[in-house]
Design goal:
Structural class: alpha+beta
Radius of gyration: 21 Å
Largest sheet: 4 strands, antiparallel
Shape: elongated
Order of helices and strands: HEEEEEEEEHHHHHEEEE
Helix content: 10-25%
Strand order of the largest sheet: 1-6-7-5
Mean pLDDT: 93
Number of helices: 6
Number of strands: 12
Distance between the termini: 31 Å
Length: 279
């Protein structure tokens, strides 16, 4: 599942393969850009911005893409067989003399002027893995809507950019609160830890092939995708429920013993859970 660390890794692979080299192949397989041709232009750099990828080329143009759930960029050496999926799932091909980058199943793909990149990513909050990271601003963004459940606020890329559903669940576990706890109910000291811990998690994983939050051998994650297995800390069965803001429901995992705050009742409403207060 692509999150900020995954996209950062994709940007690094693309940058290493393409930056400083001239494109000899350019093939956009979406109707809007079917006639676009970037051949003869050098790739300047590839940068991640939250979960967005910006591939900048000579002439003031940027290929903007977003992976969402199923998209991916694959890099192949000259003569190497492509293996990212069937040909009908390819959305764009960018090739140099020795490397070819192929974008599969990209739900967002556009060619825009580099000067207009803010139109695509200007709405994003501070990037957890970017040079614009600002924990104070991220915290202020999160606390701007105190009634909003923490899990939803963390997924809102306008607050801070880079957290997906996996980190949402793991971060809430490490904080000891459920994803349904209103942001305003977080004690100030605990609230201040949210952006700091989020950055620590993503930075620790941006160079790893397998995402890990536990530090335990053989157990990569505390709660995500572990229901109904026992909690690694207390042994209670991990719970699973959907959480969403109405636009999309996301599977959400938590430990009802280790995490304080509201949790869904039968029927999907958030209730008091086990009734423990937030420490």
């Amino acid at each position: 599942m692509p999150e900020g660390d995954t996209v950062w890794q994709a940007a690094r692979r693309l940058h290493e393969a393409l930056a400083g080299k001239m494109l000899i192949r350019s093939d956009f397989r979406v109707p809007r850009y079917a006639t676009a041709d970037l051949t003869g232009r050098a790739v300047l750099d590839v940068t991640a911005r939250g979960k967005h990828l910006l591939t900048r080329v000579e002439g003031g143009l940027t290929v903007h893409s977003h992976l969402r759930m199923d998209g991916s960029w694959k890099v192949f050496a000259a003569g190497q067989r492509w293996s990212g999926g069937p040909a009908h799932q390819i959305r764009v091909i960018l090739g140099t003399t020795d490397r070819t980058a192929v974008g599969y199943r990209l739900p967002v793909l556009e060619l825009l002027r580099t000067a207009d990149e803010e139109r695509a990513v200007g709405h994003l909050g501070p990037d957890l893995l970017g040079p614009d990271w600002n924990p104070e601003q991220a915290l202020a963004n999160l606390r701007a809507d105190p009634a909003r459940p923490l899990g939803e606020a963390l997924l809102d890329q306008r607050n801070l950019a880079g957290i997906g559903n996996v980190y949402k669940c793991e971060l809430c576990f490490l904080l000891g609160v459920t994803p349904w706890l209103p942001v305003g109910d977080l004690p100030p000291a605990l609230a201040a830890k949210v952006p700091v811990l989020a950055k620590k998690l993503l930075e620790a994983n941006r160079d790893r092939p397998v995402r890990r939050t536990t530090g335990l051998r053989g157990q990569d994650l505390f709660v995500y995708s572990r229901a109904p297995r026992p909690c690694l800390r207390c042994g209670t069965s991990i719970r699973l429920a959907d959480q969403g803001d109405g636009s999309r429901e996301r599977p959400t995992y938590w430990c009802p013993t280790c995490q304080a705050g509201p949790a869904p009742r039968p029927g999907g409403l958030a209730g008091s859970g086990r009734g423990r207060g937030v420490r």
